[in-house]
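Thread: quick sanity check before group meeting

JM: Hey all, I'm pulling together slides for Thursday and realized we never actually wrote out the predicted structure for the chain we discussed last week. Dropping the sequence here so it's in one place. If anyone has concerns about the input, flag it before I start.
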Amino acid sequence: MLKKALNIVSQRAKEIDPGQWVFVLGGWNEQQFADTPGGFTTEELDAAAPENPMFIQKSYSKAYMNSLAEQELA
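JM (edit): ok, ran it. Output follows.
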């Protein structure tokens, strides 16, 4: 399941211009992926969107980001 989710966000990144943000807002729960509980790693998100900053909202207080997103927000 986690691999499928990464494929979905990777496909979205390919549909937009490099540098544009990929956002996933709401509807996310770490426990929905039984194969890999605990969420995404930065490395997985970097591989999924190497040319786009990516932000995946987990809750109001936590989100997952790739390296490009972290650099832009620093």
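AS: nice. The helical segments are 2-15, 42-48, 67-73. Residues 2-73 form one domain.
JM: adding both to the slides.
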